[in-house]
Structures are given as C-alpha cells and as structure tokens.
C-alpha cells in the first residue's frame, strides 16, 4: 500500500488544517504547478524553468535538485511529487542529444497524468535579457492565441487547453482596468509555437479610453511540438465533470440563443379579442344608421354604387 494513500487521523490542529486544505472541494483551489529539472538539464532549460517560475509565482513550486526520470517512459515519480506537493500541473525540463532543450508540460487528474505534451525550445530570450520594467509578482495574465491550428488540430487544441490551465491564475470576481497589465501571446504558424510576453502600457489619449501600447517584457520562447500523451475521450470527459451542486438550476420558460440573448415565455389566460382596445380611427367609426340597425337586429341597407 502506498504510504500516501493510507488514512491519516490528525493529531494536531495544524495537521487538521493541512488535511482539510487537501480535501475535495466544490470550487477547486487555484491550480499549482511544479517545475522539475531532469537529471541532464542544461543551463538553457534551467533558465527557462526559472523564468516560468517567476511568471507563475506564487502558484508554483520549483524543485532545485535534479531528478532522474523520463515522463514518457515512467510517470510514477511525477505522480509521487504531485501528491507530495499537491500540484495538478507540471513542467519538466531535460536535455540530450536526441531531444535538445526539451520541455514536457502536463496536468494531473486525481494525481495521475492526464495530458502531456513535449516541446522543444529552439530560441529563448530570458527575463533578465530584456531590460524593460516587469509586472509585479502574481499578476494575472491575459492569454491570446493566434493561428488556425489551435482550432483545427486536436493536438494543438489540447495544447491550448493545457496552456490556459497552466497560466490562467486565480479566478477573480471583478476586474479593474489598471490590473490588465500583462499579456501572454501564443502564435501557432508553420509547425512552431511562438510564446511572447508583453507589459500593457496605458497612455493618455485625450478621452476616457486610454491608448494601449505593448512593451516586450520576456520571457520569449520559440517552441516546436514533439511527442504527445493525450487522455482518452472518456477520461478527458470524466475530468471535466462538475458536481451537481455547481451546475446552474434550469429555469422554466427561459432560453438563450447562440449570442447569449435571453428569451422568456409568458403564459396568459385566453383573451377575448372582441373586447381588445385598438387604435380609434374615423374611417372605422360606425354610422348612426348602422348602430340603430344592430340594436334592432336588422342588417343595414347597402348604398347603391354609382
């Protein structure tokens, strides 16, 4: 039996709080990522992991020591670290002759690897190489995806979902304009993925809406997709399942169209259209003779046409 699977009864209040924090919740916590260096990681891979850690902080754990593991051959080490540090996302960096400057990005479901995509770093510009001002720690980024491949190709579609999971940060109820200061831009073109980071500068425009300028901030990565390990459709569907308590209750007689417009259906009693008040027009007014004929029950004589 796995020592991490056994039922542990807390002996202190601190241990009780720790176990309560890891209990299943209706609204899950912000996903934390673990960044792991492989046994043969070079300087470039180490710098990439440091910069991604700087972007992800405080929702990331960086392992300083090298770990000899191969995610595509054996996933037990990743699953052990995931359970130990309560992380549902991971980024593993390695380097060898066959696959230089290698990154493996993935996510967990129930502490088991769900999706995993291997990316090769062809070009890298570090945070410290760009001398512009940086965004403060914990800034929630705006994510932009450009390129048809993110919508057409299944592997790229799953990579887009993975990147959104990895960089989205905490869920916030409100947004202020000054807080929109960090952009992560991903472009898929000619079999490559270009990742760029920008700081948003709000300039004076002479009106209420400020003029927007983007200033490159780093890190900057040119990536190429290598191997993939994608979850089956059934497992992927299971990972997206929501508890019943979170599902919105269906409201009667209310529907929505594709544009988000709300339509309501109103049920009314049967109306007598004869008593319906319409617009009064002189041309529709009854003549005195017609009124008298209606009262006596005799149909009025029609005037002869000339």
UniProtKB/TrEMBL annotation:
Belongs to the RPF2 family. Residues 270-306 are annotated as: Disordered. GO terms for molecular function: 5S rRNA binding. This is Ribosome production factor 2 homolog. InterPro entries: Brix, Rpf2. The keyword Nucleus applies. SMART domains: Brix. The lineage of its organism: Eukaryota, Metazoa, Chordata, Craniata, Vertebrata. Keywords: Nucleus.
